[in-house]
Specification:
Elements lengths: L8 E5 L2 E14 L2 E12 L6 E7 L4 E2 L9 E4 L4 E3 L3 H13 L9 E5 L4 H7 L5
Parallel strand pairs: 4-8
Antiparallel strand pairs: 1-2, 2-3, 3-4, 5-6, 6-7
Helix pairs in contact: 1-2
C-alpha cells in the first residue's frame, strides 16, 4: 500500500515525538508559477505551533522542478539532501533547534533551509 503524502510521518527522538511532512509550493498565477520551494514542516502531535524549513529556488540551489526528484534539494556543486529520509529530517531538526529556532506556542516559525544546508549535507551520506 502506498503511503499518503498528506499524512504526516512520525519521528521519535529520545522521549520526544514529532510529526513531519514535505511539500512542494509555488507562488504566482496558475500556469506562471514562480519561486518554487520545497518545504519540510515539523510539529509536535496535538500542537498548533510548527516550524517550516524552506528551501527556495535561487541561483546555485536546486529544488524539484520536474527534473529533480520530489524531496531532493541540493546545490550546483553536487551536494544534496533527500527530505523524505527520516535521518535527513532528524539532522535538519537538530541543526535548526541548535540555533534556538524552536517550536513555540501556536505560531509558525520559518527557517531558510539553505542556512543549515551546508552543515547537514556535510554530515549526511551522498544523496541522503
Amino acid at each position: 500500500m502506498t503511503r499518503s503524502s498528506r499524512t504526516p510521518r512520525q519521528l521519535v527522538i529520545g522521549g520526544d515525538t514529532f510529526l513531519w511532512s514535505v511539500r512542494h509550493e509555488h507562488h504566482g498565477e496558475p500556469g506562471h508559477y514562480e519561486d518554487c520551494c520545497e518545504v519540510l514542516t515539523v510539529r509536535r502531535p496535538g500542537a498548533l505551533g510548527r516550524f517550516r524549513v524552506v528551501f527556495a529556488s535561487c541561483p546555485g540551489h536546486l529544488v524539484p522542478d520536474g527534473y529533480t526528484p520530489s524531496g531532493t534539494v541540493g546545490t550546483t556543486d553536487g551536494r544534496c539532501l533527500n527530505l523524505h529520509e527520516p535521518g535527513t529530517v532528524r539532522a535538519l531538526l537538530d541543526a535548526v533547534t541548535s540555533r534556538g529556532d524552536l517550536i513555540v506556542g501556536d505560531g509558525v516559525t520559518e527557517v531558510d533551509g539553505w542556512t543549515v544546508f551546508p552543515a547537514v549535507a556535510a554530515d549526511r551520506p551522498a544523496g541522503g
